[in-house]
Amino acid sequence: MKKFFTNKYKLQYQQLKILKWYDQWSENQSSNPDTITPVKNVSQGSLAIPDKWNLTGDIQPYFWQNDAYQKWIKNGNKGTVKVVTGAGKTFFALGLIEKFQCLQNDLHVAIVVPTIVLMNQWFEEITAHGNILETNVGRLGGGYHDGFENNVRILITVLASASDKLADTVNAGDVGNSLLLIVDESHRAGADKRSSIFDTPRIASLGLSATPEREDSDQQGNQKYDESHLGRELGKIIHELTYADALALNIIPPFTIEHYGILMSLKERGTYDSLTRYIRNLKKELEYCAPRNMDFWVWIRKESKKDKGNSAAQKLEKNLSKRKGLLYSLPGRSKALKALIDNELSVNRDAKILVFHETINDIMALYFDLVNSKKYPVVVEHSSLPDSIRQQNLELFRTGAAQILLSVKSLIEGFNVPEVDLGIIVASSSSVRQRIQSMGRVMRKHHKQKQAENNSVIQILYARDTIDETIYGKLEWDKILGAGANKYYHWDDISKPPINVDNPPKRPMPEDTDINLSDLSEDALYSGKYDGIEFSCDTTGTVTNDEGQMVDFPKELTEKILTIKGAGRFKVTRNRFYCLVHLNEINTWITKFVGVLNHLPGPIEEPEETVSEDWVNNPDNIGQPYPATILEIQAKYKFSQKRGGEIVKKVPSGEVYARGLERADDPAKGENADTLLKNIKRIHGTGKKINKLIVTLQGHVLSKYEGKYIYIGNLTAGLEFPR
């Protein structure tokens, strides 16, 4: 019998349902159409737990998976595996559980994942291939409230729920002495509000991520991850596998990454440049008041949330968002996308195409554009769609009724994607992690292949001469993806073929380990990355770290810093200890080499003894190093050359000056001020310039000079200032 409701009409019906949903969703974007009905303790447990677990079926592990397991054991049953998306992280974890259960017969496992989708996928993976019954696998989060009671041996939990409940759940089940904690996409657990999962008692830990390092940190590389909170809790990076490695091991198919640089219109360029200038000036203003011991952008986010009204931090975030919105919604992206789709379908009419974008509104705008053209078999996937529509969309894509799947970030992290021929990243953030995960959705081996040599192709659109190019300067992509995998194009006119270019829009600057000391000279441009540990040098040559502690720093280098740049911040590289300064010359930031240290400088160890009264009262000690530990500071002042010399105190309305004997109501305080000024002028006469003053709890006045506190005088009565 002939079927009238064919795949073509199924797709059209689904597209109409999506349009109907979007009309309703747009009316109230704050609503949550994907509400999950809570389910309480659905796992009943079973006594039939096999003596030896099998979670991987008959599938044989890759060599890297066996190698990584041995490294994990040698590292004391803890460690982080840094492996690209699509290379088998989940299968590795299941194999590790199998092997570890042979050593720990009473094993219990807690698997922490960032999303409900991932929680359900882990549940399906464990129960589909192994000999563990569904009733022995629990879930926590997304409406589930299981624990380790009723013979539950594996508990899969969403990160948000794990942060609140996992430690108590493990303690309630009394399974801490047999627990293996696995954190999937472990970079997500690095935020302070999520780190309470590490209060969970356990005997073993495993972290899984393609990019475990936190991107909101200035710490870079595996070594710094190992020293981070995540690295200490989960274990250092014990195994790493790049896309180039996975390709060499035949884990993923051959692939090509095509990068297309599109142009903005003159009007778009004008708006972009105006926003960029405003952002640059605002950022420069805020950097002056940002705390040194906190990442600048973390501080901005906190300030923006804390302040009410039009604070500078809020203005910065607002304009950053406006500039990002301008880039994401460029009409040129939609035109280029359709040209790429048309080209693919012209050579492979059955092609399956996966498209990534950054926001729901932008992906829906693309969806409307493609649907209205009435020639593209397209569906859409994002987190705000109801479950029923999402599942049907994916099913239509799997069966080929829909050949194009538009997606937002929900598809990037952990979602099992059907076989695709082409991936197109229409727009993306500057996140290296997101770029790697997006590519991993496409670069997978599939059991069913249409041809013997199945190459994956990923096409990336970026706006030329904008912050879109920043990501190319963050990583040496040829090292990660393999030489020859990347092809670069300029696409000035979408109606014409793109023009091949030899190089990416940017390349990362060399690390200090890539630059030989013999190639450097003092006060010359430094070609490497301005990166390392930050310090600050004041006008006296005193160097402090980001906690305000004075640092033992070579005098000859501080003199060079003051000559080349003047007072301010500078950096010492982590590996070769190059001393660098950052300068703004003719609206361009440059880095200069100052010199090299033998080791990373540390805080000065001050003497422990207390200063005697005889020492304080000896006039010969004025201007000499202070011989005691500074336990606590009670006041800070400044010396000013105004009116022959003044001691200045900051107040909310501005500044006030200490009164001398002629003007003070309290003669003792006035005498203290005069004596202090006389001592400062005496010290200036020796060539030591004093400006910042501190007063200890004992009343001793000190100032930093060349990395030491020097003694200025003793306030027996204090100072008097106008009210």
Automatic annotation (TrEMBL):
Q: Where is the Helicase ATP-binding domain?
A: 70-230
User: In terms of domain of life, where is this protein from?
Assistant: Bacteria
Record carries keyword Chloroplast: no
Which ranges carry the Helicase C-terminal domain? 336-482
Q: Which GO terms describe its molecular function?
A: ATP binding; DNA binding; helicase activity; hydrolase activity
Coiled-coil region(s): none
Q: Which Gene3D superfamilies match?
A: P-loop containing nucleotide triphosphate hydrolases
List keywords of the entry alphabetically. ATP-binding, Helicase, Hydrolase, Nucleotide-binding
Pfam families the UniProt entry points to:
Helicase_C, ResIII
Which PANTHER family does the entry mention? GENERAL TRANSCRIPTION AND DNA REPAIR FACTOR IIH HELICASE SUBUNIT XPB, RAD25/XP-B DNA REPAIR HELICASE
Query: By what name is this protein known?
Result: Helicase
